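WARN retry 2 of 3 for item q-0093 after timeout on previous attempt; input resubmitted unchanged.
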Amino acid sequence: MPVKKLDSALDQNLKDIRESGRDKGAEMVITDVIKPKGENGPRYHVQGEGDKEFIKMNSNSYLGMSLEPEIINAEEEAAQKYGVGPGAVRFISGTYTPHIELEKKLAEFHEREAGMIFSSAYVTSLGVIYPLIDKETVIISDELNHNCIIQAIRLSRPADKFIYAHNDMDALEQVLKEAVGKGKRCLVVTDGIFSMRGDHAPLDEIVDLCQKYDDEFDDGVISIVDDSHGVGAFGDSGRGTEEYVNTKVDILIGTMGKAFGVNGGYVVTSETILTYLRETAPMYIYSNPITCSETAAVHKVLEYIDTPKGQKRLKHLGKMTEKFQNGIQEIGYETIEGPHPVVPLMVRDTPKTAALVKYLTEKGVLATGLNFPVVPKGDEEIRFQINADHTEADIDYVLGVLKDYKENE
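OK item q-0093 returned
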């Protein structure tokens, strides 16, 4: 069969991926969730590990909403009313009342004219950037932007593209100057929170630079931020990086699958831009939306965040983040300081990173090691992610494991 030839070629490709250290390996399978009890937060059973309990220190669910009874109930009630799936794409018969209500709620949450939901945050970035780029568009991107932004640019084929040094505003202004005259429209795209490091983009300065050069382009300079790791987990009320730096970008992309703890992605901006995207974004037009039950769960999360209970969770998240960050520094580890719950432990060596991840796993701690080429050589790290389900006892336990390793390495 011809597939044997393809198998042979792909086997070689897989070998190259493994030898270069880029393989993800076998996926860890969570088999059970143990609800919080006593002074401990949630624990997890992993396939092949029997009854051993694990603490998740690598979850994007920053607010711990996925286990909150109010959110679960909202999802179950919507499933009973609308079924488990929409059964069609939006423009045929896949749009239900909960979809419209959530889009309105997201727009209100971020103080925008309109909102639009997608099946995931990754797809949202593709679905927003790709349709806004034509043959007379120039795009400018931070060098550490997420893969979804990189792939959107590759897919779009702009008139020209520029990459500026990470969070370097002098470099951004320089490429803005170089971009003048090379297109009618200019898009400046950045992550809000950079997922590998936990640092944030200076959106206020980026917006100022976009406004400064806006008159140099017929269609203006448009600021776009993917704040998937920021919304819900950053800022005094969980509005993300915009709130933290007190500014508004032109187009904000977010996710419902991280701090909100559910699934899907979204964009909020002007009514005109979103109407255009509904007509032109293939990732939206040809994909089913998230389910009505997921939609109802996210809607409930947005309501929850603005309650005293929600604000208490945010404050607890900040407190646990600070405790963990201070703790690893006191032990003698290096980190990148910042208030976001992504806390990188900088190892700066691939074998040492792998060894520490292995030790943590043996001690019941799930953490993610990031090695070259996922991160540059010399930036190898373990990315810890704090969430509001973590307790003082949880953080103390993980710090104790790290201290024991440090003392015996």
